[in-house]
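Re: Re: ligand-bound prediction request (bumping)

Still looking for help on this. To restate: I need the protein modeled with 7,8-dihydrobiopterin bound, output as structure tokens. Inputs repeated here so nobody has to scroll up.
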Amino acid sequence: GFKRRTAGSGKTAKELRGDYSAIAGDFTVEQGWERHTAAEHALWRALYRRQSRLLPRYAAPEFMDCLARLEAEDGIPDFRRASDRLQAATGWRLVAVPGLIPEDAFFDHLAARRFPVSTWLRRPEEMDYLEEPDVFHDFFGHVPLLLHPIFADYLQAYGEGGQRALRLGRIEHLARLYWYTVEFGLIAGADGLRVYGAGILSSAGETPFAVESPSPNRIGFDLERVMRTRYRIDDYQQTYFVIDSYQQLFDATAVDFAPVYDRVADRPDLPPDAVLADDRVLTRGTQERVRAPAAE
Ligand code: HBI
Ligand code: FE
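Reply:
Sorry for the wait, this slipped through. Here it is.
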């Protein structure tokens, strides 16, 4: 899956993948859809086909419905066309970016209902592993749920929360919320546990792992618990947090985070594999994956 090193990791544009030579002030670029080669479109189709075979068993049904509405199976999508669909449905638009962008620019886009999508595509030998978001991760993983009215509102609220968190110096806490929901979230639905997090949904390995492996913990979502929990960027997650509905997610974040951050900062951070006495534990993981990582 996509293992993020955030823009806050100190990487400069020169060390990031993607072409930052023609960025506008808000870090957007032209998508340059016409410049994508036949080989890139073929790689997109291979990635799309592999995930769409896997996902009916694992992905949240809302994600599947939204994905189908994007009609993106034939090749790298033209963002202009996808934006028109999104705008009509939920008022979101896509903007093209070279790759990771600074947090303030990222939050400003989300708060204005613009989702930044990277333009570069991984190489064929990178089907399984990426450290930075490419167009497949960003579009296939993130864009479908922008068609979902409640999730769409949640992501905008997250962007506004990010703008405030930057002013309060609490980005680390807020970033954990994004990580454990937007990127690696699970939802308990009518058919049992399902995936809605983009980091999982764009990874063929982590998709079955997140739902079926005995290794990770699966714990009921709790805002302050999530904000206290460190995460791994170099392997599958050791803990997934499970929501009951997108409304729960929106409601939990429709509060003033300032007092929440104060309470969170008063207590120690938790390691990624922690299980607490008052957690709502759905699965207590064996953590065997961490002791003996599978070769991948
Ligand atoms: N930039 N393009 C891009 N995509 C991201 O997901 C992203 C980013 N910059 C910052 C960032 N994410 C995170 O630091 C925040 O969500 C916390
Ligand atoms: Fe992502």
